[in-house]
Specification:
This protein is α/β, with parallel strands linked by helices. 30% of the residues lie in helices and 26% in strands. The chain has a nine-stranded mixed beta sheet. Strands 14-13-12-15-16-17-18-19 form an eight-stranded mixed beta sheet, sandwiched between helices.
Length: 474
């Protein structure tokens, strides 16, 4: 049994379900769907992947709503053919997180036996309120009692699309704001928006210059739940670029040093920080990332970017990605310019490969060790991917701020705008390029993986020699 359970769906799936289930006549309605599992380190999530709307005669609306055995059997057949679990969804004509009536419990208890027998996965039940707030639960097989199923309430339901919205179980995700320390922050966007932001579980992948600053900003802004993923240790050459890291921290894991600084800077009443000393390309780092509601990509190599790109779509976790490129003359004695770029990827948005942030070919080279092999590197014509110029504090702070602003827009949508597009700042002339919408015609490989979870058909993580060596270093 996992420590937490959750559900996620894309914005498109949410809209289609809400249009069907929330009726203008305020009667209840229902439908079935299928879900793919997503196995995090501590959280099991069901990803709604395919909606099975009722056909004529398969359900009857009469104040309450009922369905035919044929509809249930058709839904089971589709779930089995897709290798996915069964979802039963219905609506209540009231706002907010919905608790279950005795009739709801009886209905889902009966369905859970057939769902497990046919699909091998627990039944997932969802209810939508009149204000489009979702509530959810899994029906888990009792460990000792035959044909008995136990209801496990989900802590949250996430909708990932142009905007990120999360419905929280009121008893599992209690949020008490520290109004005294967050007075100015709350005055900017209000108490509800602050709660929406602070309850998110935020993963920061890569605790270098940008990642350490993102962590500091979010700690001061009252965020409460963090997962820090990085295998590297602090070196003396990092001290001019890392936030909250000092000479005494040289040799320590970056996540440990930065976590300590975040605890000093926090403005929330309490803060939870999980330190994960692995690469996101290793299974331990990958699984930890799946416990998050949103991820910051503060990495500069192709393989981790590829992993995060897969997570953004297959596991419905938006990824905010940024990078800096410093241009110098041939002997590195003068700077010609510097550019930094940020974009958010996930369902309904262009992916990192489309934006040109990595190529599958280079990700494969890094995965097989070639990009860390001096002999192979000597033979490369284009060494720019492994010869990126070192960053400086001023550039990192600007990019970190841009990344956090992408998150704020994604969640609270000031003036209704949640998608800032791809933003590129040119330091040389002080201008910003912005690309909004989707300029790409063809669907990418990762976009075709949307909501597939564990059912992608491949494993993106693998052993990581450099990460293993860093963990073993003293």
């Amino acid at each position: 049994m996992k420590a937490a359970y959750s559900v996620a769906m894309s914005g498109d799936v949410h809209r289609s379900l809400a249009d069907h289930l929330i009726r203008k006549d305020r009667q209840e309605d229902l439908c079935f769907a299928t879900y793919s599992p997503s196995q995090g380190s501590n959280r099991f999530s069901g990803l709604i992947s395919f909606v099975i709307f009722p056909e004529d005669g398969e359900r009857t609306v009469h104040g309450n709503v009922s369905f035919s055995a044929a509809y249930f059997e058709r839904a089971l057949s589709i779930a089995r053919s897709r290798g996915e679990g069964l979802v039963f969804l219905h609506s209540h004509p009231f706002p907010g997180w919905q608790f279950m009536s005795s009739d709801d419990i009886k209905a889902e208890t009966r369905l859970s036996i057939g769902a497990m027998a046919v699909t091998g996965l627990p039944l997932l039940g969802l209810t939508i309120g009149s204000d489009q707030t979702w509530s959810a639960r899994f029906w888990l097989k009792h460990l000792s009692k035959r044909r008995t199923y136990v209801r496990e309430m989900c802590s949250s339901v996430r909708v990932a699309g142009e905007r990120l919205t999360v419905s929280y179980h009121p008893e599992k995700s209690e949020c008490k704001l520290n109004h005294e320390l967050l007075l100015r922050t709350i005055s900017a966007w209000g108490e509800k928006s602050q709660k929406d932001l602070s309850q998110l579980t935020v993963g920061i992948v890569g605790l270098g210059s940008v990642g350490s600053m993102v962590a500091e900003i979010l700690a001061r802004k009252g965020f409460t739940n963090f997962v820090l993923i990085d295998f590297d240790r602090v070196e003396a050459k990092n001290l001019d670029r890392l936030m909250n890291v000092y000479y005494a921290d040289v040799g320590k894991l970056k996540i440990a040093a930065i976590s300590k600084g975040m605890r000093r800077s926090k403005t929330a009443r309490s803060i939870s920080i999980r330190e994960v000393p692995y690469s996101v390309c290793e299974e331990q780092g990958f699984r930890a990332a799946l416990d998050c509601d949103v991820l910051f990509s503060c990495v500069d190599r192709p393989w981790p970017r590829q992993v995060l790109n897969v997570i953004a779509y297959a596991h419905l976790i938006p990824v905010i990605d940024g990078g800096i490129k410093v241009l110098t003359n041939k002997d590195n004695t003068a700077m010609k310019g510097a550019d930094w770029k940020v974009q958010t990827v996930g369902p309904g948005r262009p992916c990192l490969e489309q934006w040109g942030q990595y190529t599958a070919a280079l990700a494969t080279l890094e995965r097989n060790g070639s990009l860390d092999d001096p002999d192979y590197i000597d033979g490369m014509e284009d060494k720019s991917v492994i010869e990126a110029k070192e960053n400086v504090f001023a550039f990192s702070s600007f990019l970190a701020s841009m990344e956090v602003l992408q998150l704020i827009s994604l969640v609270i949508a000031p003036s209704g705008i949640s998608n800032l597009g791809q933003q590129t700042y040119h330091m040389k002339n002080g201008t910003m390029d912005v690309v909004r919408g989707n300029p790409f015609i063809e669907e990418s490989f990762c976009q075709r993986l949307t909501a597939r979870g564990e059912n992608t058909g491949f494993v993106i993580y693998a052993p990581h020699l450099i990460a293993e060596q860093a963990r073993n270093a003293r």
